[in-house]
Amino acid sequence: MRELIVLGTASQVPTRTRNHNGYLLRWDGEGLLFDPGEGTQRQMIHAGVAASSITRICLTHVHGDHCFGLPGVLARMAVDGVAHPVHLHFPASGEEVVRALVGLAGPGIDLRLVPHGAPGEVADGLAVVPLHHRVETYGYRLTEPDGRTLVPERLAAAGLSGPAVGRLQREGRVGAVRLEDVSVPRPGQRFALVMDTAPCPGAEELAEGTDLLVTECTFADEDADLAAAYRHLTAGQAGALAGRGAARTLVLTHFSARYPDTTGLAAQARARAGRATVLAAADLDRVALPRRRAVGAGRG
Ligand SMILES: [Zn+2]
User: Where does the record place the catalytic residues (predicted)?
Assistant: First the structure.
């Protein structure tokens, strides 16, 4: 199961309808919690997310709207008796803030601090890329390795079925039949999260070829001067990231409280988003990862 559960969509100031940030990505057996702002613990209850489903917590930066929910979430995990290790990723320059927040939560879970100070892979398939904000900020990208999709007609023509198919997938060939003869390439899925940043090469890199791209969308195009002053994206800039990167689905979030209605922001993003499906997220939205595409099979 792969889906994004939006726990909050507010930037600096929450509103009656928008909690501070918080995003849970269910990715097979993993549960990655990104940027838990204030109130994340309670939003998890509204969303039906168990604290035990979190295996990894990823902070883009240590501004309050992206991390002040951390003590509550950690304390709740301890109350619930979470036994599995939990990795906490964050920019190294934010370590003092992170240690203070973790200290507030107290002990009780097997929490492992994993600071990063350079781009690259921080866990299997999980990479960080620097962004351009007022403090050290990194976006995250999760990449599934490319694989192959079996074509049932070709399997049948090759006379393979049952346990032989499993052997073919494990060993790459069964007798004269090679895996590539009966399958087509399937690009791995890609998810990326681009939080507080001005337009920058890192944001472009993160957006490239994503199935699901989550970006901040703090300001409307007409407030581009504010976006530039505070190093944030306008709706149009967020859309352009998806368009240039050929993202399949763009989820906009981290809205300024000055826009009670996000319809206009979505329209501004859509105008520059190419073929991407553009959604302005609302609290508690769930977005499924778009189905994987197999190359050249017309199926899968
Ligand atoms: Zn923010």
Answer: 65
Known binding-site positions for Zn(2+): 61, 63, 65-66, 133, 196, 254
Give the distance (Å) from ligand 1 centre to CA of residue 10. Answer: 8
Catalytic residue (choose from 35, 65, 211, 283): 65
Q: How far is the CA of 150 from the centre of ligand 1 (A)?
A: 43
For residue 181, indicate whether it is catalytic.
no
Answer yes or no: is 297 within a domain: no
Q: pLDDT tens, 50-99?
A: 999 999 999 999 999 999 999 999 999 999 999 999 999 999 999 999 99
Question: What band does 1 get if pLDDT is binned at 50, 70 and 90?
Answer: confident
What pTM was estimated for this model as a whole?
0.91
> Which residue ranges are tagged as binding site?
61, 63, 65-66, 133, 196, 254
- Which ranges of 59-183 would DSSP assign to H, the alpha helix? 70-79, 95-105, 152-157, 163-171
What total of structural domains would you count in the chain? Answer: 2
Same domain? For 245 and 139 the reply is: yes
244 and 231 in a common domain: yes
> Do 139 and 158 fall into the same domain?
no
Q: Strand 126-130 vs strand 120-123: parallel, antiparallel, or unpaired?
A: antiparallel
Of 241, 276, 280, which Cα lies nearest the Cα of 260? 280
> Cα dist. 281→33, 80, 296 in Å?
16, 29, 33
